[in-house]
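Many introductory courses stop at the sequence. We go one step further.
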Amino acid sequence: MTPESSADHGDVATLLKPLDSGLETALASLHARLIRDALDDNSLEIAYTVVDSPVGKLLLAATAQGMLRVAFELEDHQAVLQLLSDSVSPAILKAPSRLDEAARQLDEYFGGTRHSFDLPLDFRLARGFRLDVLHHLPRIAYGSTESYAQVAQAAGSPKAVRAVGTACATNPLPVIVPCHRVVRSDGSYGGYLGGTDAKRTLLALEAA
């Protein structure tokens, strides 16, 4: 490379830096305007954000009715968002401010100062007996567990033990709706949407 071409290359790099910086600022401004416009005309059906936690990054999604989805990282957040777009509404936008209260309560829970959640919930992703199970789960006291059989009994279908397992495995609002408090009759953990390590972490947190 000749001195001239080297100098030209440096000039191009110098010119690109402010352009890149300006583009980033413009995109951030555009995104903020999209959120404001969507809120103003009520076209934003689902707001989402991603927060850090002791069990990995959590995707939080909510509608005007309440919390719609909490998803673990191993579920693939992009796949979850696509499913929400297909099954609920394509009007989805990252809007962290809409999830501030949920994020705050989760921080308090993981910090050991909150034992239950006080958030509006949108249960449209669950139906029938699965919904009955989800309504029961918050009644399991913090730091306590119930067996799948006990939950089946409490939900009104004593023989539906397998269905309780399915309801927990498809719980759209894990952590907030505490399916991690449901264990096998012998005390072993059983399955969990966020993985066994996540379930162990949550139960250990509550036991402490």
